Amino acid sequence: MTDTPHIMVVDARVHEDIADELARGAVAELDRAGATHIRYGVPGCLELPAAIMYAIRSMDFFTARKRFDGYVALGCVIRGETTRYDTICAESARGLQDLALRYSLAVGNGILTVENREQAWARANVGSVNTGGRAARACLDMIDLKRKFRLYPR
């Protein structure tokens, strides 16, 4: 990429240690690509799409702030004993996808949907699957694709 992308990294803090590992992978990937980034935390995965929408809508009111070129959403949903797991998984993914499609956003979805903490760590670990890094790379790749279609303003 020729221009330096500016990325919003937002992570669900419900499982703080896992969120921090996901963010570590995402930030390392963004740094490797030379992207600038700002990290925000939200209570849980259902709040991830809302946080991105706040950033988009804030441009209607405060245009002096540098806009984000892409978004990386990070979090972890661990199956429990209720059906809430299914709702959180489906609605957080749907919310991110709706935003990406409605506003032509470059969104990297790094939400883990797992059965237990061991699976979460295996997928979050920077030295293993590195889902945070993969989500950041997906975001950067989508920014690059937007440029090819001239959907990118720079």
UniProtKB/TrEMBL annotation:
Residues annotated as binding 5-amino-6-(D-ribitylamino)uracil: 45-47, 76-78, 109
Organism phylogeny: Bacteria, Pseudomonadati, Pseudomonadota, Alphaproteobacteria, Rhodospirillales
InterPro entries, per the entry: LS (IPR034964), LS/RS (IPR002180), LS/RS_sf (IPR036467)
EC category: transferase
HAMAP family linked to this entry: Lumazine_synth
Pfam family name, one: DMRL_synthase
Family to which the UniProt record says this protein belongs: Belongs to the DMRL synthase family.
Name by which UniProt lists this protein: 6,7-dimethyl-8-ribityllumazine synthase
This protein's pathway: Cofactor biosynthesis; riboflavin biosynthesis; riboflavin from 2-hydroxy-3-oxobutyl phosphate and 5-amino-6-(D-ribitylamino)uracil: step 1/2
A GO molecular function held by the record: 6,7-dimethyl-8-ribityllumazine synthase activity
